[in-house]
């Protein structure tokens, strides 16, 4: 499955001149793929890191992440694609990255980073496909080129990156909550992370003033009437799935500060 995913990703990148790597503004490092970045560089394509969902973090934090990437030699822009905020900045960044025209853009990233929202934002209301993309057997027969500006085109099929960002990201982004056999473990990890970076996150999301992740899941289940029919115990698996969904929807709010990443890099360089 992973090989097939990377094979399809190579297919998308090969047909593009500019590749957008979409990361989640709440945790850009864990949703970033160095393997993708090396692949784009090796194929001679231009890369833009798109920090999406920036409406879920303070603007000054989004600016810091943008500068952090730029200081390391990357093009970067932050947007909130769902609300079409920052789309104009992204278009400008694409034009600046284009070494020649016409140019084709591809959108890549982990699941749940908002790739489809970015594709729709760039398409706009009145865009229409110009032609199917040839040479796609085994991947998709429906990939189209869309005109997104004068001499600018976009592949409408997102390149989905196999999730690499640690055990938590691999689970919550790699599978829909409904398909998780054990949703409790990742939900507990997610709640621990939320409380670490925003001690009020659970209180604000659920009105629950509790720090124990298992107790939080029990209380969510009880408040929503989710119980096992056999013994009436709280159905914490359903509560766990709800917590994961709420994170993706932006209800469970927290973000990783860029300063933490800089400290980590500094420690690593000294060791």
Can you put this structure into words, describing what you see?
By secondary structure, the protein is an alpha/beta fold. The protein folds into two domains: 159 residues, 3-Layer(aba) Sandwich (Rossmann fold), CATH 3.40.50; 96 residues, Conserved Hypothetical Protein Ylqf, Chain: A, domain 2 (Orthogonal Bundle). Strands 1, 2, 3, 4, 5, 6, 7 and 8 form an eight-stranded mixed sheet that branches. Strand 6 and strand 7 form a beta hairpin. The two termini are 36 Å apart. About 3% of the residues have low confidence.
Note the run of SSEs as H and E: HEHEHEHEHEEEEHHHHHH
Specify the overall morphology. elongated
The percentage helix is 40-55%
In DSSP terms, counting alpha (H) and pi (I) runs of 4 or more, how many helices?
11
* Helix/strand/pairing category: alpha/beta
Give the rounded overall mean pLDDT.
90
The CATH architecture term of the largest domain is 3-Layer(aba) Sandwich
Radius of gyration: 20 Å
Distance between the termini: 36 Å
| The CATH C-level class name of the largest domain | Alpha Beta
Kindly identify the CATH topology of the largest domain: Rossmann fold
Q: Can you tell me the residue ranges where pLDDT is under 50 for at least 5 consecutive residues?
A: 134-141
Fold topology:
Elements lengths: L1 H13 L3 E7 L9 H9 L3 E7 L6 H13 L3 E4 L8 H11 L5 E7 L5 H9 L5 E4 L11 E6 L2 E4 L3 E2 L5 H9 L9 H14 L3 H6 L6 H11 L12 H14 L8 H13 L1
Parallel strand pairs: 1-2, 1-4, 2-3, 4-7, 4-8
Antiparallel strand pairs: 5-6, 6-7
Helix pairs in contact: 7-10, 9-10
Keywords:
271 residues, Rossmann fold, Conserved Hypothetical Protein Ylqf, Chain: A, domain 2, 2 domains
């Amino acid at each position: 499955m992973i090989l097939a995913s990377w094979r399809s990703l190579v297919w998308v990148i090969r047909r593009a001149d500019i590749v957008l790597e979409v990361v989640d503004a709440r945790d850009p490092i864990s949703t970033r793929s160095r393997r993708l970045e090396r692949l784009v560089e090796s194929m001679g394509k231009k890369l833009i890191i798109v920090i999406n969902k920036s409406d879920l973090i303070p603007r000054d934090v989004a600016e810091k992440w943008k500068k952090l990437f730029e200081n390391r030699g990357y093009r970067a822009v932050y947007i909130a694609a769902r609300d079409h905020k920052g789309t104009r900045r992204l278009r400008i960044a694409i034009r600046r990255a284009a070494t020649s025209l016409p140019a084709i853009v591809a959108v890549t990233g982990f699941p749940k980073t908002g790739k489809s929202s970015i594709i729709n934002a760039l398409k706009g209301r009145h865009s229409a496909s110009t032609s199917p993309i040839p040479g796609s057997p085994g991947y998709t027969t429906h990939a189209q080129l869309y005109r997104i500006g004068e001499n600018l085109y976009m592949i409408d099929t997102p390149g989905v990156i196999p999730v690499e960002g640690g055990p938590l990201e691999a689970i919550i982004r790699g599978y829909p909550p409904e398909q998780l056999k054990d949703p409790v473990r990742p939900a507990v990890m997610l709640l621990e992370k939320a409380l670490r970076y925003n001690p009020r996150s659970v209180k604000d999301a659920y009105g629950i003033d509790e720090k124990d992740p298992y107790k939080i899941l029990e209380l969510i289940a009880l408040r929503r009437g989710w119980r096992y029919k056999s013994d009436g115990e709280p159905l914490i698996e359903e509560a766990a799935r709800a917590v994961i969904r709420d994170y993706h929807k932006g209800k469970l709010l927290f973000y990783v500060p860029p300063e933490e990443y800089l400290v980590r890099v500094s420690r690593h360089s000294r060791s």
